[in-house]
Amino acid sequence: MEEATGLVKHELMAKFKDEITQDQIDQLIKGYAKLVTLIKPMKSFHWYISISLVNLFSDLDEINGKVMKFIIRPERVVDTSRVPVKLTKYPRPDTSTVSNARYIAMYEYTSSTDEPTHLYLNGKSYEEPVTETPKTGTTELWNVINLTKDNHPLHVHLGLFVALEQRKLVNVDVFRQ
């Protein structure tokens, strides 16, 4: 596995207990800032009160390339949202109208400490162009083969989907080789 090069940003988000004073927070920030002098590869330190996650591998413009934004506020904010008592029940899809069947194999490489380093979909990394582009109004059957150790390595945005069945792979280590 080749070593990554280029700029790496490490984002740390913190929520402090109510009894932590601003002075204690300031001391923590100074401690993190001091890491720049102690860790040679670390080039800079920035402290923000809001963070935006951005899709760097997208052809989208600056606004549409934003994934999500977190705003850290000093005052406590109460979450008043609730899970609905009853969820919408969608009918089971009619598989006789399937316009396309896809096979999506997911595989990840891990480090010497067994931490995931690279995830591949059908042998392609996330940096490569999108390959799965279903058409609006169609029904597709996706056969997802999860060769990772993760139980949730894939989720779909802006599309309605139903898991028709789930099977355990037999001899999964043979597939991983």
UniProtKB/TrEMBL annotation:
Single GO cellular component term: endoplasmic reticulum membrane
Domain of life: Eukaryota
Membrane topology according to the record: Peripheral membrane protein
GO function term, MF aspect, one: copper ion binding
Gene Ontology biological-process annotations: cellular response to phosphate starvation
Alphabetical list of InterPro entries matching this protein: Cu-oxidase_C (IPR011706), Cupredoxin (IPR008972), Dabb (IPR013097), Dimeric_a/b-barrel (IPR011008), LPR1/LPR2 (IPR052152)
Listed cofactors: Cu cation
Homology family: Belongs to the multicopper oxidase family.
The name this protein goes by in its record: Plastocyanin-like domain-containing protein
Record organism: Coptis chinensis
Lineage, opening ranks: Eukaryota, Viridiplantae, Streptophyta, Embryophyta, Tracheophyta
